[in-house]
Write a structure and sequence with these properties.
Keywords: Coiled coil. The protein contains 4 helices and 9 strands; from the N terminus they run E-E-E-E-E-E-E-E-H-E-H-H-H. A hairpin with an 8-residue loop joins strand 4 and strand 5. An 8-stranded antiparallel beta barrel has the order 1-2-3-4-5-6-7-8. The protein has one domain (about 5-200). With about 200 residues, it is α+β, with helices and mostly antiparallel strands.
Length: about 200
């Protein structure tokens, strides 16, 4: 799992043509297990939906199976102005994700035009980062080429500028460790899908 601060962009949606699509742009602080960002819900069919909220929350890691690496339990709340405002919350999400932060399922509700709308058990998948839609994070993440990427740019620049061979080797080792964990993340996602199938058959 990525250590430090990283950005992820997710789509949460059911496979229904014209149904609501939730896009989450999140900044994940792994040392504090805190998450903040922006949620957008759109729906192309009538009635059209254009919902927006600043979101915040936290996450924990749990193991559904002792042999697995675990999963992410994500909880988010949101409103139009952020956590320090006095405006009532207009968004809530509960999700279970793979350790890759790019798969899983989530249920959420949002208040739009005075009514709460509930979406249950929607699939989570990585979203392509598009320049226009990623504008809110441009100042924090810079040009984004992937759905999820660690924010190592500063560390890399500092290490290169210093010419410190030990620091450069340490950064390379961190990158290689993340690549080596790819198979474990895939296995954890498969275990999550099996658990979801088992629960659905109850």
């Amino acid at each position: 799992m990525t250590i430090g601060l990283f950005h992820t962009r997710l789509i949460v949606a059911n496979p229904v043509i014209g149904g609501p699509v939730l896009t989450l742009d999140l900044l994940v602080d792994t040392p504090k297990k805190r998450v903040s960002g922006v949620a957008r819900v759109t729906q192309s069919t009538s009635p059209p939906v254009q919902f927006h909220a600043d979101v915040w929350g936290d996450y924990s890691q749990v193991k559904l199976d002792p042999s697995s690496e675990g999963h992410i339990i994500l909880s988010l709340a949101g409103n139009p102005s952020g956590p320090t405002s006095q405006i009532a919350e207009t968004f809530h999400l509960q999700g279970i994700l793979g350790l890759d932060w790019a798969s899983g399922f989530a249920s959420y509700k949002y208040q739009f035009q005075g009514h709460w709308h509930v979406v249950q058990h929607a699939a989570v998948s990585p979203a392509p980062v598009e320049q226009a839609q990623a504008a809110d994070y441009a100042s924090q993440a810079g040009p984004a080429a992937e759905a999820r990427h660690p924010l190592y740019a500063v560390a890399l620049q500092q290490a290169q500028a210093s010419g410190d061979l030990a620091r450069l080797k340490a950064l390379v080792a961190q990158g290689e460790q993340q690549l080596a964990n790819a198979d474990n993340l895939t296995q954890a996602v498969q275990q999550l899908q099996a658990e979801i199938s088992r629960l659905e058959q109850r």
